[in-house]
Each structure stands twice: as C-alpha cells, then as structure tokens.
Amino acid sequence: MTNEERAIVASCAIEVFRGQTVRQRLPKCSCGVNMKEEEIYEAPGVFFEEISVYGKTITLIEPVCPECKKKIPAVWTALE
C-alpha cells in the first residue's frame, strides 16, 4: 500500500468504522482471514468504493487479503 493510500484509509476509517451515517464491518475474507482496523494499514493493497447514503458521499475501504491476495468487498449498514 502506498503512503497516499494509507492517508486515504486514515481519513476514511473513523467515518466508516465508527461513524453515524454508515457502519462498515471489519474486513473478513472468504479464505477465513479476519482483519482488525489496525491491520488494514499493512494490507498489500487497498481499493476504495464511494457510496451515497442520505445524500452524503462515503468512501468505503476494501483491502486486499494478505493471505489469498483477493479484494475483500466492503460490507456496510446505513444507520438512522
């Protein structure tokens, strides 16, 4: 992961993992790897997905699994 990607993850992590508009679940890969929030910064790569919820654009974090090297899709819930 590049320094630019780390900066984007840092700016989005609080909003998506502890925010009041959406709540993203911690990444869990189909191969069985469960990532903690801190481990996302050490992922081999990361993708970002923008969604619109209640008229607000939110950037979700989709890290690459360190074991199988597949993208872990973001799973999220809209909060009221």
Keywords:
80 residues; alpha+beta
Strand order of the largest sheet: 1-4
Instruction: Summarize the amount of helix as a percent range.
Output: 10-25%
Q: Could you say which overall geometry the principal axes of the C-alpha atoms support?
A: globular
Total strand count, please? 4
Structural category: alpha+beta
The total number of structural domains is: 1
Low-confidence stretches: none
Strand content: 25-35%
Radius of gyration: 12 Å
pLDDT averaged over residues: 92
String of helices and strands: HEEEE
Major β-sheet, in short? 2 strands, antiparallel
Number of helices: 1
Distance between the termini: 33 Å
